[in-house]
Amino acid sequence: MRYFFHAGYLGTNYKGWQKHPDGLSVQQVLEDALSQIFKKTIWIVGCGRTDASVHASQYFFHLDTTITWEFDLLFRLNHVLPDDIAVFDIIPMDDNAHARFDAIQRAYDYFIHTYKDPFLSNFSSLYPIKDWAIDDMNRAAKLLLNYTDYYAYCKTPDGNTHTICNVSEAQVYINQTGDRLRFHISANRFLGKMVRIITGKLIEIGTGKLSVDEFEAHLINPQLPQVIKPVYPQGLYLSKITYTYLNLAPRSKFSQLLAGTDDTWQKL
Fold it and tell me: Is 51 a catalytic residue?
């Protein structure tokens, strides 16, 4: 039987989602927790990779097992997991459903704050800039919908079978006081560090260090030489995964709080 697990995590303490020898990963923690509960080795398959210190407000992984259980697995798993990883739902699926290959759309959000705040330092990235050219940033962001080859905005483009991505949404938002920004982007797939590289270019545009035309030149001719520098990882969230057969709203509201769009507080 195949099960999808709907999860979320803060990536601060982890070397990304995928297991590797360089440090603790989110995947390793989840597999260890499930193995502890079922008293046998468990392997899981995630919907994609995230870099070290990058967060996921929505994430899916799948598990194949012939084990049946009569206890509350969701409760027990969350009890075993550390506080920075949570599982929200466990969903029985068809055996051919695949957490990674069946995802038709992924969305990311990158959060910026412009003033030093110890309560935001692990969840948003500090760029102490007072004036942003938001219109230019959004002009550049909208260009992403017109192109498909993102060779220029990948850390290791030659390591991919191809660098074609279909971006369906790209927008920069700023709060009313002008001290918090959010970049939202959605596509069918993303390349290594692609969102962090694009965000870095948008920051350069927003601060007058790069023109919109220069940004577009690398979309027109992806192999033009350039210097790429990914932005800090802690501001980035994998925020939405969509399947043709499964489209759940993210359970965590924390990213809405960061965006300043939460309306749950009421004055009594």
Answer: yes
